[in-house]
Amino acid sequence: MAGHRSDMMKLVKLAKKNGCTVERTGSGHWSFTTPNGTRITASFSPSTQHALRSTIRDLRKAGVPLRANHSPQAGRHD
User: Quick one: which of 10, 16, 22, 65 could link to 72 by a disulfide (CB 3.0–4.6 Å)?
Assistant: First the structure.
């Protein structure tokens, strides 16, 4: 499980590099605000790889240019 949290931290850094504002909410979740204003909320430490992939998918759908070979879970085979 620690691996998923570490991957989420990598995603936070990558999202910031791509113009997102990232904050912790009062309930402990991550709040990503994309450059176009879309807000995406994610778990602080996702319990599954699926939760992390869902956050990546949502960021991409909102226009954040995350490339597959630079995504946190790239190369992982959990």
Answer: 10
* Dist. CA 14–CA 26, nearest whole Å: 22
| Amino acid code (one letter) for 71 | S
- First vs last Cα of the chain: how many Å apart? 10
Nearest by Cα to 76 from 16, 17, 4: 4
Run of H or E including 31 = strand 30-33
Q: Which residue has the tokens 């912790």?
A: 24
Of 76, 20, 19, 24, the residue nearest 50 (C-alpha): 76
